[in-house]
Amino acid sequence: MTLSVIISMALFALAASISPGPVNLVSLSSSARYGAKKGLIFVTGVTFGFIALFLFIGFSLHYLIAQLAWITGVLQWLGIAFLLYLSYQLFIDDGGLTADAKQNAPTFMTGVIMQWLNPKAWLASLSGIAAYSPGAQGRKDLNWLLLQVYIYLFVGYHLAVGFG
């Protein structure tokens, strides 16, 4: 593995971590409403949820997609449609925050579950695994997958902690 591959993976993880999506919006919103400590609890759950999702996709769904290649095209178009929908929602939003005392801050488990329901996380996992896994079998697959998880954890979580 070369340094250029590791840098490329890190840049991919950075782009996936900071691009607009539902989890980033909830993280920003909860940090603004409830403070950085509550926001970091949610971000930690999001990180663990993404790692679990990434490993699940890497060990199981990746092989299904290898058998049914047409699914990737469908997922790409669904992802494009979803990101356009989010962009439109951001465009029409007035930016106002409501301070509702009855609402609770998102929890660690909310973050874990939200990643599994997040289409952006599924697309980032699928495309990251497809782009950076060399197609080797056995232990090499595990090593590549764990390296990708480590790079995401380092870049994504430390970026959130640094700016949270």
Write up what this structure looks like.
Pfam families: LysE. It is found in: Cell membrane. It is globular, with a radius of gyration of 17 Å. The protein has about 160 residues and is an all-alpha fold. Helix content is about 80%, strand content about 0%. The longest helix has about 30 residues. The protein has seven helices and no strands. The model has no long low-confidence stretch (mean pLDDT about 75).
Shape: globular
What pattern of helices and strands is seen along the backbone? HHHHHHH
Helix content: over 70%
The number of helical elements comes to 7
Report, as a whole number of angstroms, the end-to-end distance: 32 Å
Based on secondary structure, the structural category is: mainly alpha
Global Rg:
17 Å
Which regions contain 5 or more consecutive residues with pLDDT less than 50?
none
> What is the count of β-strands?
0
Q: Tell me, rounded to a whole number, the average pLDDT.
A: 77
For the biggest sheet, the summary is: none
Q: How large is the share of residues in beta strands?
A: under 5%
